[in-house]
């Protein structure tokens, strides 16, 4: 798999995770959890703009768990 394909998959994973975190923030009643999820979503959506090599994270696959 080429670096550009890895970068594209990494970006997509980051955006999906950010979307999931935004949904969790919307669904929770806990203000601390809401703020935490929104901070994480902002970080992940920002990482989508950075190539995987720059973050030090190598794309493993769609079934990996992101934390």
Description of the molecule:
The protein is mostly helical. It has one domain. The protein contains 3 helices and no strands. It has helices at 3-27, 31-47, 52-55. Helix 1 (3-27) packs antiparallel against helix 2. The longest helix is centred in the N-terminal third of the chain and has 25 residues, at 3-27. Mean pLDDT is 78; it is low at 57-67.
Low-confidence parts, pLDDT < 50 over ≥5 residues?
57-67
> What is the element string, with H for helices and E for strands?
HHH
Report the structural category. Answer: mainly alpha
Roughly how many Å apart are the termini? 24 Å
Q: Give a short account of the largest sheet.
A: none
Layout of helices and strands, plus pairs?
Elements: H1 3-27, H2 31-47, H3 52-55
In short:
The protein is mostly helical and 67 residues long.
Key words describing this protein structure:
3 helices; 69% helix; disordered C terminus; 67 residues; mainly alpha
């Amino acid at each position: 798999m080429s670096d550009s394909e890895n970068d594209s998959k990494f970006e997509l994973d980051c955006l999906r995770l950010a979307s999931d975190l935004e949904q969790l923030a919307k669904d929770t009643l806990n203000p601390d959890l809401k703020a935490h999820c929104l901070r994480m979503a902002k970080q992940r959506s920002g990482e989508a703009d950075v190539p995987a090599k720059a973050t030090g994270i190598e794309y493993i696959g769609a079934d990996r768990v992101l934390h």
